[in-house]
Write a structure and sequence with these properties.
The chain is an alpha+beta fold. It folds into two domains: 10-40; 47-160, Nuclear Transport Factor 2, Chain: A, CATH 3.10.450. The protein is 36% helix and 16% strand. It has helices spanning 12-40, 50-64, 68-75, 93-99, and strands at 113-120, 129-136, 140-147, 153-155. It has a four-stranded antiparallel beta sheet with strand order 1-2-3-4, with helices on one face. A hairpin with an 8-residue loop joins strand 1 and strand 2. Helix 2 runs antiparallel to helix 3 (68-75). The termini are far apart.
């Protein structure tokens, strides 16, 4: 075969290679931005704490609506808790309602809230617990622990309300 009989130039393989390189670089930049952005905004690496924040937000929405039965179900991550109330006899609904009204860390019913920031506890890749900071009734701060394993919440006592 001589130089005169060479096949015509096909730009498709070169175009495909260039697009693959550009696409890979764009994906890498987006990954880095999401990773760093989630961490610096206080929502965990790659925004991995957002499900916990959403769970806590739903909990406080129910408290604001004075729907303590629903809030109790969210707290225990069991929407059908009324079907087996004996399972929660150690912490019944009456005590829960008292804890989140007159005996709450803010010593009043919850009227407003804002989920501010969250952080994983640091064990393992994602952590087993997410600590979610919530600003309640204006300037009171409450920290809730969200257990990734079973989706339940636990509250820190009033002595754990600190500046963040």
């Amino acid at each position: 075969m001589s130089l005169m009989d060479a096949p015509a130039y096909d730009p498709a393989p070169d175009r495909r290679k260039r697009n693959l390189i550009i696409g890979s670089l764009v994906a890498l930049v987006v990954f880095v931005l999401l990773t760093v952005g989630g961490y610096t905004m206080g929502h965990g690496w790659l925004f991995t704490n957002l499900p916990a924040e959403h769970h806590v937000n739903n909990f406080f929405n129910a408290l604001e609506a004075r729907d303590y039965s629903k809030a109790y179900g969210i707290y225990n991550n069991d929407s059908d808790w009324q079907q087996h109330p004996g399972k929660y006899s150690d912490y019944p609904l009456a005590r829960f309602t008292e804890d989140w009204t007159t005996e709450s860390p803010v010593e009043a019913p919850i009227a407003s809230h804002h989920v501010d920031v969250s952080a994983a506890d640091g064990t393992g890749l994602l952590g087993s617990t997410v600590i979610v900071a919530v600003r309640v009734n204006g300037d009171h701060k409450i920290f809730l622990n969200y257990m990734r394993s079973d989706g339940t919440l636990t509250c820190c006592s009033a002595t754990h309300i600190i500046q963040y």
